[in-house]
C-alpha cells in the first residue's frame, strides 16, 4: 500500500491506517451486546486520542516548525 501511495516511509501510513481500522470496529460489531461489552471500554481511549492528544501533538509540531515566526492568534 505504501508503494501504491508512493510514500517514503511505512510509518507515515501506519498511524492513519490503524486509526481508520479502530474506527471501523464499531461498524463490524456483530451485535449490541458485543459492542457494549468490548468496544465501549476502548472508546474512551479513542476519544481522548482524537480530541486531546492529536490536536496537542499537531500544535507542538506547528510551534517547532514555525520556530517562533508565526503566532496562533493575537498576542
Structural notes for this entry:
- It contains 2 helices and no strands.
- By secondary structure, the protein is mainly α.
- It is flat and about 50 Å long.
- The chain starts with 10 loop residues before the first helix and ends in a 9-residue tail after the last helix.
List the defining traits of the structure above.
75 residues; mainly alpha; flat
Explain the layout of strands and helices.
Elements: H1 11-27, H2 32-66
Summarize the structure.
The protein is mostly helical.
Structural class: mainly alpha
- The run of helices and strands is HH
Largest sheet: none
Termini separation: 44 Å
* Radius of gyration, taken over Cα atoms and rounded to an integer in Å: 17 Å
Q: In what range is the share of β-strand residues?
A: under 5%
Helix content: 55-70%
Overall mean pLDDT = 78
Amino acid at each position: 500500500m505504501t508503494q501504491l501511495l508512493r510514500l517514503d516511509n511505512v510509518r507515515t501510513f501506519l498511524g492513519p491506517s490503524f486509526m481508520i481500522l479502530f474506527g471501523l470496529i464499531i461498524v463490524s460489531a456483530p451485535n449490541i451486546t458485543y459492542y457494549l461489552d468490548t468496544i465501549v471500554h476502548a472508546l474512551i481511549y479513542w476519544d481522548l486520542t482524537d480530541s486531546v492528544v492529536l490536536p496537542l501533538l499537531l500544535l507542538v509540531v506547528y510551534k517547532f516548525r514555525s520556530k517562533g515566526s508565526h503566532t496562533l492568534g493575537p498576542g
